[in-house]
Design goal:
With about 160 residues, the protein is of the alpha/beta class. It has one domain (about 1-10, about 20-130). Helix content is about 25%, strand content about 30%. The protein is built from 4 helices and 5 strands. It has helices at about 1-10, 40-55, 70-75, 85, and strands at about 20-25, 60-65, 90-95, 125-140, 140-155. Helix 1 (about 1-10) packs parallel to helix 2 (about 40-55). The two termini are about 30 Å apart.
Length: about 160
């Protein structure tokens, strides 16, 4: 699956993009595509296999994960506590308040350690600090829209 996504992108010499492939770890309303139906160990094995497949693509591709500490703990428990070190995956996390809004503070002071990610280890890549917003793009005569997340990036 990962090769099927990345290979066409890598084969376009005019494409300019960051070669990071983020896997979104969130609850799903589709029971066929959910983390909830599997054990912590099965989830960890699957995610580790996916991250290693990205690492093996070559051409400077690197894996990343988007999630929150609470979601991570509910799907993986303590079974994936060394995931970041084992795979080299960067973390893009969100911190939600009690009303479900994204914490917009532009710092990592709210970060709670999970999955082996830490600011000291320099694998804490970015934090979402604003709601996703859709912006219109114009490409030739075709109108496209992009979903943009507002992020706070680490400066290491």
């Amino acid at each position: 699956m990962i090769n099927g996504i990345i290979n066409p992108l890598s084969g376009n010499p005019s494409a300019f993009f960051v070669k990071e492939f983020y896997i979104k770890v969130e609850p799903s309303s589709n029971p066929d595509c959910s983390w909830e139906g599997y054990s912590h160990s099965d989830n960890c094995n699957f995610l580790t296999e996916a991250a290693n497949a990205i690492n093996n693509i070559g051409d400077f591709w690197s894996p990343g994960v988007f999630t929150t500490a609470n979601i991570w703990n509910s799907f993986f428990g303590s079974t994936c506590s060394t995931f970041a070190g084992d795979t080299g995956a960067q973390l893009w996390y969100a911190d939600y308040d009690s009303t479900g809004n994204v914490n917009s503070v532009q710092s990592f002071d709210d970060y709670v350690s999970f999955g082996g990610w830490s600011y000291a280890a320099q694998n804490l890549g970015m934090k979402q600090v604003g709601k996703s917003t859709t912006v219109p793009l114009l490409c030739g005569h075709t109108a496209w829209h992009a979903l943009i997340d507002i992020l706070y990036l680490s400066a290491y």
